Amino acid sequence: MTGPSRTDDDLAWWMALHAAPNVGDATFHRLLQKFATPRRALTEASPDSLQGIAGADACLVDSLLFAAIRIDHTRKLLGTLRSRGVKVLTFEDSDYPARLHRLKWPPGLIYMAGEYDEQIDTCSAAVIGSTHPSARAFRSAYRSAGALAAQGCTVVSGNAAGVDTAAHTGALDAGGRTVFVLPTGILRFRPPQEVPTARIERSAVVISDRPPEAPWETRGAILRNRITAALSSFLLVVEAEPDGGTMNTYQAARKLGIPAAVAVFGPDTPEGNRLALSEGAVAVKSVAELIAFLANNRSTQTGTQQLFDWP
User: Are domains 8-113 and 124-296 of this chain identical in fold?
Assistant: First the structure.
């Protein structure tokens, strides 16, 4: 159950404000602080009423008014989400993931399919890496995710090609749980083809802070990265370039004080991995070392270690 009592009509106004162009997370929270409710923020927007809100300009006024006149469309969209079993959670709700409150400006609302459980998902490992990985990195991500799942750790990743796909699939194939953090709207979610739908419905959680129909865009991917980091109790960088999305997620985790491990493959360890190591991340050379790192960063006892090295 959610915290505050909120009608579907109230929730539609939350969705409308959250999806309005030019309304990022910081602006969303500032508008709520000033107007108290999303409906008032959308219907009372004017140059005068927005004075004192950082970044407010004529474009923001237009965005808010436009979102208000499209409220009937948003109500229908909420009905579609309900019919597909998608929950809409505001940051005030009790089943909104508590870890997201670690962010300076947590998403004003998120869309979720499946059941995220703060107790079951206490150990959550972000397994991240390149969208065009080497075969070695792809195998390492798959095996690492499976080993982490065998330790009762939920695997979190960003539903991208490459390492993310290997991580999600490895966790599910091992009988574990995984969290798909989307860079797109939740209505655009497409799971890995290799995984049966029934297994995803049983053992996966899908989370997005993008408007439900939003396509992929760079900004959405960057925002996805900080959610991936915030939901995790530790992070594994499998293979990274120094300036890609993987390092963006790593830096977000670093700012939050989340422990990070980095796969080391020898002399040809990728440049991004080496950069993370230079900033204090812990080198792991095998799945056994990864599980030892996990044991050092959780309070519960681990099971049998996986003894194979990186392929």
Answer: yes
Q: How far is CA 64 from CA 6, 39, 57, 277, in A?
A: 21, 10, 11, 44
- DSSP tag of 103: S
Under CATH, to which class is 8-113 assigned? alpha beta
| Domain extents in the chain | 8-113, 124-296
Which 3 state secondary structure label does DSSP give 257?
A: coil
Block residue for tokens 């609302």: 109
Rounded to 5°, angle at Cα 70 from 56 and 94: 75
CB 140 within 8 A of CB 311: yes
Burial of 62 (0-12, 13-18, 19+ CB in 10 A): middle
Contact call for residues 128 and 237 (beta carbons, < 8 A): yes
The count of C-alpha atoms lying within 13 angstroms of the C-alpha of 191, restricted to the half-sphere facing its C-beta, is: 20
Regarding pTM above 0.85, the answer is: yes
Cα(209)–Cα(152) distance, integer angstroms = 26
Statement: 124-296 belongs to CATH 1.10.10.1590: no
Report the alpha-carbon distance of residue 135 to residue 245 in Å, rounded.
19
- C-beta separation of 179 from 229 below 8 A: no
Q: What is the DSSP string of 52-63?
A: TSTT--HHHHHH
Could you read off the pLDDT of 123-160 as tens digits, one per residue? 999 999 999 999 999 999 999 999 999 999 999 999 99
DSSP label of 184: S
Confirm if 246 and 232 have CB atoms less than 8 A apart: no
Mark residue 71 as left, alpha or beta (left: phi above 0; alpha: psi -120 to 50; beta: remaining).
alpha
Q: What is the pLDDT of residues 198-207, one digit of tens each?
A: 889 999 999 9
- DSSP 3-state of 157: strand
